[in-house]
Amino acid sequence: ILNLCALQVLFLGPLMQLAMDCPWSFMDGIRVAFDPWFWMLCFSDMRWLRNQVVAPLTEELVFRACMLPMLVPCAGPSIAIFTCPLFFGVAHFHHVIELLRFRQGTLSGIFLSAVFQFSYTAVFGAYTAFIFIRTGHLMGPVLCHSFCNYMGFPAISTALEHPQRLTVLSSYLLGVILFLLFLFPFTDPSYYGLPTPVCTLTSSPSSLCLS
């Protein structure tokens, strides 16, 4: 839960923008969250199930729970955090194949889209790998993955044109600062049992495995 809170802090700008543009009140959101009919609609939507449940669970299981324990003994925790996401980024290249097959865009546009998606997924993969190594639990990465799939990439261009631009952009900046401040405290291995299981796979001590 702490890992998800840290990620929500990072998305403070988009969340603030969403709250400003959404006509719902806080109590409206609470009522919907506890509405069984709403969740029945969600679970009957195959795209929602793929993005919010199946993809986060299976991808984190493969690329974090299975791949990291194989990389850490060979490369160490620090290098594994940045190596594992490269495989995760390449695994998303199937989207490029779909775009090429259905000719959805120019070749240069598809290439730029592929580079952007690889970069974004690699950075996100490094974050969830960091969480998994620091905490030793898969639930944190899965919840963060599901949340990121729901939020998508922040609409910075829209924020620049927002009527309350100063407030929204200040929220973006504040979110990044708070995220960096909370990153290590919220993933302190002492909360989860020191050392975490992944850290025991390497003989050389790493600062990532220490509180």
TrEMBL record:
<dbReference type="GO" id="GO:0004222">
    <property type="term" value="F:metalloendopeptidase activity"/>
</dbReference>
<feature type="transmembrane region" description="Helical">
    <location>
        <begin position="166"/>
        <end position="186"/>
    </location>
</feature>
<feature type="domain" description="CAAX prenyl protease 2/Lysostaphin resistance protein A-like">
    <location>
        <begin position="48"/>
        <end position="151"/>
    </location>
</feature>
<keyword id="KW-1133">Transmembrane helix</keyword>
<feature type="signal peptide">
    <location>
        <begin position="1"/>
        <end position="21"/>
    </location>
</feature>
<keyword id="KW-0732">Signal</keyword>
<keyword id="KW-0812">Transmembrane</keyword>
<keyword id="KW-0645">Protease</keyword>
<comment type="similarity">
    <text>Belongs to the peptidase U48 family.</text>
</comment>
<feature type="transmembrane region" description="Helical">
    <location>
        <begin position="110"/>
        <end position="133"/>
    </location>
</feature>
<feature type="transmembrane region" description="Helical">
    <location>
        <begin position="61"/>
        <end position="90"/>
    </location>
</feature>
<dbReference type="Pfam" id="PF02517">
    <property type="entry name" value="Rce1-like"/>
</dbReference>
<dbReference type="GO" id="GO:0005789">
    <property type="term" value="C:endoplasmic reticulum membrane"/>
</dbReference>
<keyword id="KW-0378">Hydrolase</keyword>
<protein>
    <recommendedName>
        <fullName>CAAX prenyl protease 2</fullName>
        <ecNumber>3.4.26.1</ecNumber>
    </recommendedName>
</protein>
<dbReference type="InterPro" id="IPR039731">
    <property type="entry name" value="Rce1"/>
</dbReference>
<dbReference type="GO" id="GO:0071586">
    <property type="term" value="P:CAAX-box protein processing"/>
</dbReference>
<dbReference type="InterPro" id="IPR003675">
    <property type="entry name" value="Rce1/LyrA-like_dom"/>
</dbReference>
<keyword id="KW-0256">Endoplasmic reticulum</keyword>
<keyword id="KW-0472">Membrane</keyword>
